Amino acid sequence: MTRMQPIVDFILELDKLKAVTRATRPLGLDRYENSAEHSWQIAMLAVSLEPFAPGEVDIDRVVHLLLVHDIGEIDTGDTIVYAEDGWEARKAAERAAAARIFGLLPGAGGAQLLALWQEFEDAATPEARFAHAVDRAMPALLNLANAGQSWREHGITHARVVARIGPPIRAGCPALWSYLEARLDQANRAGWFGARDGAAAATRISQEP
Amino acid sequence: MTRMQPIVDFILELDKLKAVTRATRPLGLDRYENSAEHSWQIAMLAVSLEPFAPGEVDIDRVVHLLLVHDIGEIDTGDTIVYAEDGWEARKAAERAAAARIFGLLPGAGGAQLLALWQEFEDAATPEARFAHAVDRAMPALLNLANAGQSWREHGITHARVVARIGPPIRAGCPALWSYLEARLDQANRAGWFGARDGAAAATRISQEP
Predict the structure, then answer these.
(1) What gap in Å lies between CA A136 and CA A48, rounded to an integer?
(2) Closest listed residue to residue A43, CA positions, set A60, A29, A28
(3) What does the pLDDT look like over B81-95, one tens digit per residue?
(4) What is the tens place of the pLDDT at every residue in A3-46?
(5) Whole-model pTM?
(6) Bridge-partner residues for B21, per DSSP?
């Protein structure tokens, strides 16, 4: 029992990720999605996108990266990708959180999970770049199926979306960006983005540099 | 774009798993958990339990089994494990649902995911047995941290829990059952289970054979 208890403590700590809410709503639901169900969905998206992954990508490791990548949010909460100020401070706080939470797991297990979390953050391996592409694409895919829900709620323009998610998606999964770029153009013509100077953007999201 | 669209259709269909609710509540939240966030949590539990997995178990495949195992519930909803009647009919409905949903994915991808789903159902490989152990243990671990919440809400007795989850957990991960058996005994002494003839059991859960 003494060797099992730290694992139980760890998995119960992870339960808190179910309470971390994101900017995107699940399709057809009034509530916002949480980071736990998001992590499941992007793991499934990575598996589904395997035919479009660059040849050297190990999908099993991508899945592990995606399962752990948001766990730091248990202490910090989710931050919409379009927030510009304070990014470094938030990342440092997430890093401290990840060290605390994965530190609950004894032996090599916690260190391995923290290394996966850091690999995602560094975005320096093909797996981490593919994982970033998948993570950035998913809320866009939900918005494209939901009349631009979070873009409109937060006053995010088409140009801003393209500038923010285009480079990482293109870097990690070029075919996915080719698809999304065309869909985002269609959505722009449909008026599914925030206005350039939307009040929501001014109050909820800090100014771009 | 034409090759990418079926993958997008598939991942948006999977979004519906976020709306499938289970009998267990996340710790500290008023709502019930959904099968999407549950799938993420048990994938993390499997990874964390790797030191206690039987030697031949491939944890990467366990993670894949757990990520897909509840997807049939998109059409059928979740059924508490203590429901006894109609199990075969529900399983047939879930099988049809899995075939429909994984059939959205073109090429080999959908067939591979359906094969994983079926492998979990069959529980004939060490990976599937380990996955079952993890899946059955997680709601018990949440209940043990939550004063027996779903056991009490549904009037499930200690004997019934032991009879239902003991064999699959022991078969897939003996060390996990040794731990849980002792914790369940403690919980029984604490009064965290339903009474033998609880009204909730009589109305919501069918009779044991």
Answers:
(1) 15
(2) A60
(3) 777 677 788 888 999
(4) 999 999 999 999 999 999 999 999 999 999 999 999 999 999 99
(5) 0.92
(6) B34
DSSP chain A: -TTTHHHHHHHHHHGGGGG-B-SPPPTT-SSPPBHHHHHHHHHHHHHHTGGGS-TT--HHHHHHHHHHTTTTHHHH----TT--TTHHHHHHHHHHHHHHHHTTS-HHHHHHHHHHHHHHHHT-SHHHHHHHHHHHHHHHHHHHTTTTHHHHHHT--HHHHHHHHHHHHHHH-HHHHHHHHHHHHHHHHTT-S--TT-HHHHHHSPPP-
Beta strand ranges found along B30-86 (DSSP E): none
- Encode pLDDT of A117-141 as tens digits: 999 999 999 999 999 999 999 999 9
The Cα-based distances of B206 to A13, B21, B75, B83, B132 in angstroms read 34, 20, 22, 6, 23
Q: Name the residue among A8, A104, A36 with its Cα closest to residue B145.
A: A8
Mark yes or no for CB contact B4/A60 under 8 Å.
no
Tens of pLDDT, residue by residue over B37-61, are 999 999 999 999 999 999 899 999 9
Phi first, then psi, for residue A207 (nearest 5°) are -65, 145
CB contact under 8 A, B7 and A145: no
Q: For chains A and B, count residue pairs whose Cβ atoms are closer than 8 Å.
A: 144
**Cα B20 from Cα B140, distance rounded (Å):** 19
* A105 interaction partners in chain B (CB closer than 8 Å): 48
Selecting from A12, A109, A179 the residue whose C-beta is nearest the C-beta of B51 gives A109
- Rounded Cα distance between B201 and B203, Å, is 6
Q: Band the pLDDT of B196: cuts 50, 70, 90.
A: low
pLDDT single digits (tens) A44-55: 999 999 999 998
Helix (H) or strand (E) holding B185: helix B174-189
How far apart are alpha carbons A10 and A45 in whole angstroms? 26
CB A166 within 8 A of CB A181: yes
Cβ atoms of residues A205 and A154 within 8 Å: yes
The pair of three-digit structure tokens given for residue A105, joined into one six-digit string = 């797991």
The pair of structure tokens assigned to A3 is 């060797």
Q: Give SS3 for B67.
A: helix
